[in-house]
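Appendix B. Worked example

We walk through a single record from start to finish. Start with the input: the chain for Sugar acetyltransferase, Actinoallomurus vinaceus, length 226.
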Amino acid sequence: MALHRGWEWVRRHGEITPSTPAGRRFGHLGKGVCIGFPTGALFGEPWIHIGDDTLVGVHVTISAGFGPGLDLGPDPIVKIGKACSIGRGSHIVGHESIEIGDDVFTGPYVYITDQNHGYADPDVPVGRQWPVNDAVVIGDGCWLGAGAIVLPGTRLGRNVVVAGGAVVRGEFPDHAVIAGVPAKVVRRYEPETGWRPPLPEAPLDEATLAALAKLPPIPKRGELAS
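Next comes the structure step. The output line below is what the pipeline stores for this chain.
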């Protein structure tokens, strides 16, 4: 149909790449980067850096600061590494510092932010209280499942798996699987013992991950002896 062909033309020519005028507004867009069209909200582009060969899905919001036209200083606010894939409808909302490593993949509708509204004053509406920033770091090779929420202050190690729908805050080690609300470690790799609990013969489905999230946290080294 002509309508479908026309939409395909619009979609293809609406993509943002390093060679397009919209791409040149970014602090850095690496070789091979493509941001799908239609986009979500994009602003603060001079403070957004995206590494080579990263693909950003349609309807994805990437923002630095509260709105367009702000001077956010000399340093980048949102940094996304090389060869990442950001799922459709996701939001990456930075105000102080969000660092996403190389080879990070997300499912659709993932939300990552380094800012929350404060609520310390019980007499002031939460939305009118001064927000609190805390940097976010997502290590190389992580996978974030659909609908995961990454809150301020989160630091994920390398190759961390975040289950779909998890609400993540805090520090998590390399080679961990985290799930639940709030998220906690449900599986972890130790060089001496391998995966604990052992990997199943078949991949875990969402129901199994949800059941694992209800288990007590795995003790850290030394805790069992104390």
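Two observations about the output. The chain has two helices and 24 strands. The mean pLDDT is 90.
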